[in-house]
Design brief:
Elements (H helix, E strand, L loop, with lengths): L12 H23 L1 H5 L8 H13 L3 H23 L4 H22 L6 H13 L5 H26 L8 H4 L2 H9 L1 H38 L10 H27 L7 H27 L4 H13 L1 H16 L12 H23 L6 H11 L21
Helix pairs in contact: 1-4, 1-12, 1-13, 1-14, 1-15, 3-11, 3-15, 4-5, 4-10, 4-12, 5-6, 5-16, 6-10, 7-10, 7-12, 9-10, 11-12, 12-13, 13-15, 14-15
């Protein structure tokens, strides 16, 4: 069946538009880590020209921590839609979600080993089980739990950061650790996979450290989904404006401090405290980003914004994996072997070009197909069978599932 508009009436446009927008932030952050060993090690590139310093600083301030929280919020929101869908189909919602989680874990492991060790799908697949256990709690309880989980997490992190300001600047050994991945990623496809395998334990530890933030955002999304805040008429303009104003007021100063501590001009010993402050204020800026996009959706620009972002959001899983595939082709021995040779400003331009390409391809694809390739696979695992034809589905929330 051909869909001429590229917009599926069975989905929630706001959810897809937010997801499509969040793909840009995910790409900007991940491409920097996939292309630049200094970013991976968390150290400053010596002798970097001003434009490269500015690019790193802007990515840290505007994108780092903000968009994975937005993606996680949308995962929690879409969980409520999936539960409603399964119940209306008289299906076993728990079994469906368990199969879906297994699919995410398997895709995440493959992604981490073959392409990018900083994968988030594995984390979603595992932490989603906690979301399943919490599915019966009320919205107010979910918000309180999220506040406690995230609040304790960032207080501990900020406290450790304050203690770290008394320690000397970055260790010289950090620069020496760059040599191994440079050789591995420029070597052969085999050395690329081996390097990803070697990094996997560290990546899993990183996922564990991110878990409180992801889980907190899951629970906020669960609460929002139960209240249907992203459905038509779910959030009024005055409320969106208030959240935007508060989010920018709290989020921008924190983001500026975080970037200054991570990338200068503050000394490197402020980095851990900067991470704590950045994590503390990231939800505020994420909320401001989301509300600004929702305001655009309800403005005279709404149709244009939907046409731009909704198709990419419908293919979020395919686009997420595609971003890694393209970037690793450029960076490693899978293709051009430019790892560590492209400055941050050029990487940022590359990310913009890849995102523009994905927006165009997503629009073209959704005019002819209901699912992207990765979405079709994950849905087949979820349903334990071939996904049905478009005419067999009911309800506006039927397909509004995060990452597929």
């Amino acid at each position: 069946m051909t869909i001429n508009t590229g917009v599926d009436p069975r989905r929630l446009p706001a959810v897809d538009a937010l997801r499509g927008f969040a793909l840009l932030g995910i790409l900007v952050v991940n491409s920097a880590q996939m292309m630049d060993p200094y970013v991976v090690e968390g150290i400053r590139r010596p002798g970097a020209p001003l434009w490269d310093q500015a690019a790193v600083w802007l990515v840290t301030a505007l994108a780092t921590f903000k968009f994975y929280l937005l993606f996680s919020f949308l995962f929690g929101y879409s969980f409520t839609l999936q539960q409603t869908s399964a119940e209306r189909d008289a299906g076993n919602a728990t079994a469906r979600f368990l199969r879906r989680s297994l699919g995410l874990v398997l895709l995440g492991l493959a992604h981490a080993v073959v392409l990018y060790s900083g994968d988030i799908l594995l984390t979603y697949g595992l932490l989603g089980l906690i979301l399943l256990c919490a599915r019966r709690i009320g919205p107010a309880t979910a918000v309180k739990a999220a506040a406690w989980i995230y609040g304790v997490y960032v207080v501990v992190l900020t406290g450790l950061g304050a203690l770290a300001t008394q320690v000397d600047d970055e260790e010289p050994a950090a620069h020496q650790r760059i040599a191994q991945p440079l050789a591995a990623y420029r070597g052969s496809p085999g050395t690329v996979v081996q390097e990803n395998l070697d990094r996997l334990p560290e990546a899993l530890l990183g996922s564990l450290l991110m878990a409180p933030g992801v889980l907190g955002a899951f629970l906020l999304g669960l609460a929002a989904g139960k209240r249907r805040l992203l459905a038509s008429g779910g959030a009024d303009r005055p409320r969106l404006l208030r959240i935007t104003a508060v989010g920018l007021s709290a989020g921008v100063p924190g983001a500026l401090f975080f970037a200054s501590a991570a990338d200068g001009p503050l000394e490197a010993r402020w980095q851990l405290l900067g991470i704590g402050v950045g994590m503390l204020t990231a939800p505020a800026l994420s909320a401001a980003y989301a509300c600004l996009l929702l305001l655009l959706l309800h403005s005279s620009w709404g149709d244009r914004v939907r046409r731009l972002f909704v198709p990419a959001g419908r293919l979020a899983l395919t686009n997420y994996l595609g971003q890694s595939l393209i970037t690793m082709f450029v960076a490693t021995a899978y293709g051009l072997s430019l790892y560590g040779q492209v400055g941050p400003a050029a990487v940022l331009l590359l990310a913009g070009a890849v995102y523009a390409l994905q927006l165009a391809l997503s629009t073209a694809w959704t005019r002819r197909h209901r699912h992207g390739p990765a979405e079709w696979l994950l849905r087949a695992i979820t349903l334990a069978g071939r996904p049905g034809r478009a005419g067999t589905q009911r309800g506006p929330e039927r397909e509004a599932a995060h990452l597929g």
